[in-house]
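Problem 12. The chain below contains 172 residues. Write out its predicted structure in token notation.
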Amino acid sequence: MTDFKLAFDKVELLLEKRYGIEVNISDVLDPNTGDLDGERIKLDYSLDLETALFVLLHLFGHTVQWNISEEYRTIGLDLAPGKDDATMAKILDYERNATRYSLTLLHEVGVTDLDPWVADMFAADWAFLEHYYRTGEKLDYKQLYRPGTGAPLTPLEIPAFRPHRWVSRWSF
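Solution.
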């Protein structure tokens, strides 16, 4: 298994150097674990390294999406519960593709042994989001994490984009 600290450091450096995305570790509005605005990613200082790596990777995927599509920004900013099935299908696609960009980013830094872990983390994240968007209740995502249960994901090529500051969801 890859060292999460080493993987985190490699990803953070690549985000800042190649993609021009600033990474901040500080306080994020509870109960959230991270935030983004299209140009910066903020992670809560209280996260363990494993969670911090997944949140960083996943928010990078959303950063890509926000910078290539107004529709994706709209999906990402609509946090109200009570979604219908058609909207949930769009959200699932949005969330899954953000994670697929994450896999590509991991592979770019030479980390190729965490694909099953990323799939498992995505499965837990999606279980959390699906429940929240349907009921408004926020579960403890750590209790939803089950190693070996995530469906395999394939990396998705990261399109060319230029980071642009849009608006944060919570805490910038």
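Discussion. The CA atoms of residues 4 and 50 lie 6 Å apart. Students who got a different answer should revisit the alignment rule from Section 12.3.
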